[in-house]
Design brief:
Blueprint lengths: L2 H22 L5 H6 L6 H12 L2 H14 L5 H24 L4 H8 L3 H33 L4 H51 L4 H4 L15 H11 L11 H16 L2 H4 L8 H19 L2 H16 L16 H7 L4 E2 L17 H10 L8 E2 L4 H8 L4 H39 L5 H24 L5 H14 L1 H10 L5 H23 L25 H18 L5 H11 L11
Antiparallel strand pairs: 1-2
Helix pairs in contact: 1-8, 1-18, 3-8, 3-13, 4-7, 4-14, 4-18, 4-20, 5-11, 5-13, 6-7, 7-8, 7-18, 7-19, 7-20, 7-22, 8-18, 8-19, 10-14, 11-20, 14-17, 17-18, 18-19, 20-22, 20-23, 21-23, 22-23
Length: 591
């Protein structure tokens, strides 16, 4: 059986499973569509939350970012997991105690204001649309390579699959579909990693293999893997893999990812699906356990993939010859077809030189040897995990499995984001603001129509993405950090915070962050349309790191506006007190 047929069978079987679950768990009421009837077991919810969280950015892009940047990008692991700790401690149980369906609904009721609700909807849509672009693009890449169709067709296919199970099942169907998707993606991620770790170090646990010595028969046998990798990269003019750069920017970016995680609406609504307040904390704890299975493996995947790529291009190191163009491995040819990988023999010597042509020492060596620049001209970081089984020459069934896993990772998060958008439009705008008299059946129809429209918009934006998956997702985290997180925190822990303060704070965070992104990334974050360049960053802060600064603007503006205006009504202050001190929460069911 050829590889493409095997890919179709495995991916098709996973789709059949998702569709079957959606039909079985079809939402029949708005409670089931928005919150799965509040009857999800915390362990099941933790697994679904992990799948919702471990998007195309985690599955497809994160290891690629670590592979090509090294230790510095471990901040993704620290920021994203740290955000769950914040969410479990500071947000999830209190929001569940409040007993609403959506984040804007909490904001609207807590701040006794439809204006606050509408601004929260706007923030939610901006965050979710930015986030979903990366998911749809990741799905398109996976479809393109493994099913041998173009990326555009892959995006349309992804949209159709999400349409079936998300529109039909709502949160109820999505929850159980995400449990299946978690099983698919974690298996797909860890099996290739185990094979690669065994091959390079003889250790079957990738996280331990990262710190083990190279196995016999491998380059640098007997030396630690990271030592060998550092040596290979410095020989080629690159920075050491384990080197660090700016601790201040690393800390700022980590903070942005942490508070951005805690403010993501599609993750927060998962905690509205459990029966009790205590279950919200347990769900967050279980989610961390399930996420850790992938996140403890990702650094090893990144390092080992970078080592494999480097030794593929220079089999004997710089003292030997670069790989001949006609001897490039098969996986190069298959990925070149997608346009995400490309080589060019610039000096016509029949070999492909891969090195850092911006490094002065390497530039001098290149001049001596007649090289004319780095000839690995295109290497999209999003392909690294998907190509890993082929790079390591693993069996065909492993390649098919990682195809299913990559698609599952993208679709699971896309479904959660689209549900958040749909719920905000149908429940918080149509039901709560514009047509309070709408029937439950009418609201359910509106929710499904909103979901369908959101899917169409997501596919369109996926066709024209502003960057690779993890880069786009990082912008969404900054927006969440600057807008919803401060508003939720103040809504829970400050009885004095009022509606004018919340509205002013959200707008200050949203406008300042969007303005900063616009100035340095251009219209819709498209490179080449920016008004300023990186040399003009405020205190050297890149746009992806700006979230905490936007959050400070939010907190400060909200504080001063709330102090300059009337205090919230007494019944709102009592409501905040009851939410913050959830008496009897450990055993009582909250509605």
């Amino acid at each position: 059986m050829d590889q493409t047929t095997l890919n179709f069978i495995v991916v098709g079987a996973s789709f059949a499973l998702y569709f079957g679950i959606a039909i079985w768990a079809r939402a029949a009421s708005t409670s089931e569509f928005y919150a799965a009837g509040r009857g999800v077991n915390p362990i099941v919810n933790g697994m679904a939350t992990a799948a919702d969280w471990m998007s195309a950015a985690s599955f497809i892009s994160m290891a690629g970012l670590i592979a090509f940047v090294g230790y510095n990008n471990s901040l993704f692991l620290m920021g994203w997991t740290g955000g769950y700790v914040l969410m479990a401690m500071l947000l999830a149980p209190y929001l569940r105690k409040f007993g609403k369906f959506t984040v804007p609904e909490f904001v609207g009721d807590r701040y006794y204001s439809n204006a606050a609700r509408v601004v929260a909807v706007i923030c939610l849509i901006v965050i979710s649309v930015t986030y979903v672009i990366g998911q749809m693009r990741g799905a398109g890449i996976a479809f393109s390579r493994f099913l041998e169709i173009d990326i555009e067709a892959g995006l349309f296919t992804a949209g159709a699959v999400v349409f079936v199970y998300a529109v039909l099942g709502g949160m109820k169907g999505i929850t159980y579909t995400q449990v299946a998707q978690y099983c698919v993606l974690i298996t797909a991620y860890t099996i290739p990693a185990i094979f690669i770790s065994l091959n390079l170090t003889g250790n079957p646990i990738p996280g331990l293999g990262l710190f083990s010595t190279m196995a016999e028969g491998q380059a640098g046998a007997g030396q630690h893997l990271l030592v060998v990798l550092d040596g290979l990269l410095t020989d080629l003019g690159f920075r050491e893999y384990t080197a660090t750069t700016n601790p201040w920017l690393m800390a700022l970016y980590t903070l942005s990812l942490m508070i951005g995680t805690a403010g993501l609406p599609h993750v927060i609504i998962r905690f509205f699906t459990v029966p009790r307040v205590a279950d919200a904390r347990w769900s967050a704890g279980w989610a961390l356990v399930f996420i850790a299975l992938l996140y403890l493996t990702a650094p090893a995947v990144g390092a080992m993939a970078r080592l494999n790529i480097t030794t593929t291009m220079w089999p004997a190191g710089l003292e030997g010859e670069a790989v001949a163009q006609d001897e490039l491995p098969d996986w190069f040819e298959t990925w070149q077809v997608t346009g995400l990988l490309g080589v060019e023999d610039k000096n016509g010597d029949g070999r492909i030189q891969y090195y850092n042509d911006a490094n002065p020492a390497m530039a001098e060596l290149a001049a001596e040897r007649g090289w004319e620049g780095n000839e690995l001209v295109t290497f999209n970081r999003d392909i690294l995990v998907l190509a890993n089984p082929e790079i390591a020459q693993l069996p065909g069934w492993v390649i098919a499995l990682i195809a299913a896993g990559g698609i599952a990772a993208a679709l699971s998060t896309a479904a959660g984001l689209l549900l958040a958008i749909s719920s905000a439009i149908s429940h918080d705008l149509i039901k709560s603001v514009y047509n309070p008299e709408i029937s439950e059946r009418g609201e359910l129809i509106a929710a499904r129509i909103s979901m369908a429209v959101a899917i169409c918009v997501a596919v369109y934006l996926g066709l024209n993405p502003p960057g690779f998956a993890a880069q786009v997702v990082a912008l969404a985290f900054g927006l969440a950090a600057a807008t919803l997180f401060p508003t939720l925190m103040m809504g829970i822990f400050s009885k004095r915070m009022n509606a004018p303060g919340a509205v002013a704070g959200m707008l200050a965070g949203l406008i300042s962050t969007c303005l900063y992104l616009f100035l340095f990334l251009g219209w819709f974050f498209i490179p080449g349309t920016a008004m300023l360049d990186s040399s003009q960053y405020l205190f050297g802060i890149p746009p992806t790191h700006f979230g905490p600064i936007g959050a400070v603007f939010n907190f400060v503006v909200a504080y001063f506006v709330s102090r300059a205006t009337a205090a919230p009504p007494e019944h709102i202050q009592e409501l905040v007190e009851s939410v913050r001190i959830p008496r009897g929460a450990a055993g009582a069911v909250s509605h």
